[in-house]
Design brief:
The complex is a heterodimer.
Chain A: H1 3-10, H2 14-28, H3 35-45, H4 51-63, E1 67-72, E2 75-80, H5 82-94, H6 103-106
Antiparallel strand pairs in A: 1-2
Chain B: E1 2-5, H1 6-16, E2 21-24, H2 27-32, E3 37-40, H3 57-74, E4 79-83, H4 88-102, E5 113-118, H5 126-146, E6 152-156, H6 158-162, H7 167-182, H8 184-190, E7 192-196, H9 200-207, E8 212-219, H10 226-232, E9 246-253, H11 262-271, E10 277-282, E11 290-297, H12 301-326, H13 337-348, H14 350-361
Parallel strand pairs in B: 1-2, 1-4, 2-3, 4-5, 5-6, 9-10
Antiparallel strand pairs in B: 7-10, 8-11, 9-11
Classes of the chains: A mainly alpha, B alpha/beta.
Chain lengths: 108, 365
Amino acid sequence: MSNLFSEQVSRLKESHFLALYWCAQAEDKHCKYNITNCFDDLKAIGITRTKQNAMAVVEALDALRFIDVRDEGNRKNLYITSHGARALETLVLERAFALRKSSFLEGN
Amino acid sequence: MAIGIGGAGSKLALQLDPNATIVNVSETELNKLEAGRKILAVVHAARGQLRGSRKNPQIGRDAFLSVKRELLSLIRGEVVFSSTGGGTGNGILSGMLGELAELDDVSPADKAMFALILPCAKLEPAEYVNNTALFLLDAVSDAIDSGNTGNIMLFSNTLKFDSRLCEAEYNRMIIESLKVFLAVPDKGDRMDLIEGHIDYEDFALYCSRPYFNHFTYFEYDPEEDVGKQIEKNVNPLLLPPESPIEALFLLEMPPEQDSTCYYNILNHFVGLNVTPVHSVVCNPKRKRPFLTVSLLYSRKPAELVEDFNRISEEHARAKVRKSLEQHVPLARLEVNLQDEAKQAAKQTGTEETEILGLLRRIGKI
């Protein structure tokens, strides 16, 4: 693991971690997970109240190549990349953050 | 006649004189002893006076007011015994010494001698030590300044505790020792005089000096230095003496032994700028010279209190140290349920395995 990668991972916040996790979870469940879903989930947890913040999280992950943002129809769907998976793995192994449920994916 | 104040004082006074007058605030205590006269100092208790002063000198001081006139006339020219640690002796005597200090002039014949029993600061309760310290600083200090008391003898309980003696035995030792000193004029009267003379008047005058009295007695060796002998034979029942202001000695010589050795003793005292009242008598019962010597010294009560304070401070420090050593600091337990849940989840490893499993399933790692 390069120094750059570990530094990138060390800068990730809880919101990034959750976004990565929910993307991976959505892929596992064969669902499409888009920016709006991500915003709703972050808002439900109380991490943010504005869509701009959710956008910033997604754009940062996209810029780092941890997720792919694909225009599909009129939705921007999110897909975790292999770098993102490694970043998530690192965070999990470091026990950096606790898991939170996505209300979109787990429906409560 | 002797006067005993409080429990300890009464027992001592009765040892010296079975017809002594005893004073107490508790009827129960008075009834325990047979005495020539018993005086109950009134404390105005609603349920009768069956309790003592519970080591509280204020009770003694209040009670003194009820017997003030009677006691002040009784103690004239007598020996007053009292302890300084408890409530009755300390309280009544504080009142009495306070009254004496107020008087304008007391004739030598009317001055009372005081025999005070000081507690052993190391082993007796802190209350006793505190009471004594206050008593010495306040009442004794004023009385000495006024010059209206006779000799004050400071007996100490230290020897009793160090030698593990029972109280009756220790009281007997104190009285036996005191009797040796009080017998000085009597010996001068009964035995053949060789040099000087201490008659009853001289002795009474000596006893009326307002200083602390340290007396001791031992077999005198004319070959050895007197100062060293006195130092070696200080009376263990009394507090050690300071440099004397006045002195008295009685030398008992066996018959047919050179009595001029008493000049050595005189010279010793002259060296200390003291001219002692003295007498040399012939005692046929003695095999070796026997010296009874008394030193009057004036030690400021503040210094005496220093000693008590020092010991009680050491005591208090040791207690604090002990309590600190025994203090076990307990970590403050802060429970955050969220953290606890996280911890529990981490321990079971569910999150970790779940996410890693998930990433493997989707083929990203």
